[in-house]
Amino acid sequence: MVVFYSDSYTVQLPAGHRFPMQKYRMLRDALLEQGVLCHDELHEATPIAMEELEVAHSRGYIRSFCDGSVDPKIVRRIGIPWSQAFVRRSLASVGGTLAAARVALAHGVAGNLAGGTHHAFRDYGEGYCVFNDIAVAALTLLAERAVRSVAVIDLDVHQGNGTASILRHDPRIFTFSIHGRKNFPFTKIPSTLDLPVEDGTDDTTYLALLSEALPRVLRFSPDIIFYQGGVDPLRTDTLGRLQLTHNGLMERDRMVMEAARDREIPLVLTLGGGYANPIADTVQAHVGTYRVGKQVFDEGEWE
What we know:
With 303 residues, the protein is an alpha/beta fold.
């Protein structure tokens, strides 16, 4: 499996900052140490060019964020202090997802050990998200006519309001979200299909909803699926308020991956939220996604 990663994904934050920036490096190390991935499967995520972001974002926002003149109100809305390192991280994260999408079209599946920045809108970012990697990658592939239709399966506990906003009027794209009804963002932007769940939702209820919804997504006949596999539905997550277990999350991942594999739909794996205490729980949940991916996808099947 080809998976994209960059050391630029980890940026120094002020002491006590809530965002678990260290999880990206911890995840890379855990995947290698546990033998889920080998070094040859990790590829460098290169920053996307600023002009390539314009497929989903306004030129003014892109330029102001990249040169540091961005409105301080937007920086506060994003929730991470501006720095050149943060710019590099944001560009590399989008570059990693676009690169993974191109690999997935050829080989069936690929991943990015960042991305899933689904709270980024056309003209601003919020919720730790600067540029919307999935929207950029989806619209780029459509513009290049590499695909004719796209599905986004977003199972982060927080609804992908930015993704829904950017993509909602494009009939070539189906956006699907299961998220906490009462959780952030408190104003939801309608996806093609939204399934809000209540606080305390457990494995059984969640997986039943997913099982019922997946056929509706697949009837859209997407040429590629972007999977935002946020792990903040985990019961130990400090921001999630759901009660999924590690086994429940892995079964969730398996359902999505087997659906894509069985229909030979290329699948792009991105990360998403994860704020567990301890952070090792978040890392292990992300490891679980890739462990399932290795079990589901037979190497060489799509050659």
